[in-house]
């Protein structure tokens, strides 16, 4: 099955986009903000909160970057107006980081300022390594300006992540700890799955001991089990800890963690720019290969 999964994933570039979209629907709320609000409300009914993300990254024009900023502002308004248990996730390249760093920071600051006035939190998502340092610098600048409704992401597969965490700890940061999904060179990233798990456990320990606001983002059962053990060792109450998962992934485990008293937040992406996000998620979850093969052979997902 593993070989079959790898073969299907390797053929993703030549599989029709309509097939990919039909399989990936479970990961995406829909094309509209109203879809994200609807999914968030359904998650609230099962005891979970959400991170709402406007799909779009690596923007190359100011007009597009301004459009993406406008969409993020609309998310903030929707969260406030509909009293959604959610916050905003934003990628800096969608705000124009590749165009002009000052321009991107101005757009980000305006969104964070609007969110603070509305009582909404903003998570700066982490992209691939060309943007890691700039993302951390943006976070530090916002914190130095007095914004505390903002957080960042640390990727456990990056070799630099321990140093980055120790650098941020004096800020009592709000950090989403994930494995990481972008394809990186070995000089920057651990490649072996167990090496990544080992580093994740280590980073989580540093964050817990440093009293950072850590958000445990993983579907890996070994890491979930270890996180629960680390929390218990430190005699933290489950309600003080938040796990995070992707929409459409391990829903049974999600519900188990909620029932055990842990906070749970689900990543809810929406928008028309779905293809890049979807293919990364499919590569991350090779068990979906069977669904792709069925869709290719039968035309049904």
List the topology elements.
Layout: H1 2-10, H2 17-24, H3 33-45, E1 49-54, H4 62-81, E2 86-90, H5 101-118, E3 122-124, H6 132-144, E4 150-155, H7 161-168, E5 174-178, H8 193-209, E6 213-217, H9 221-233, E7 242-246, H10 251-259, E8 263-270, H11 275-284, H12 289-298
Parallel strand pairs: 1-2, 1-8, 2-3, 3-4, 4-5, 5-6, 6-7, 7-8
Written overview of the protein:
α9 (221-233) links the parallel β6 (213-217) and β7. The model is unreliable at 289-301 (pLDDT under 50). With 301 residues, the protein is α/β, with parallel strands linked by helices. The two termini are 19 Å apart. It has 2 domains: 1-28 and 287-301, no CATH class; 29-273, TIM Barrel (Alpha-Beta Barrel). It contains 12 helices and 8 strands.
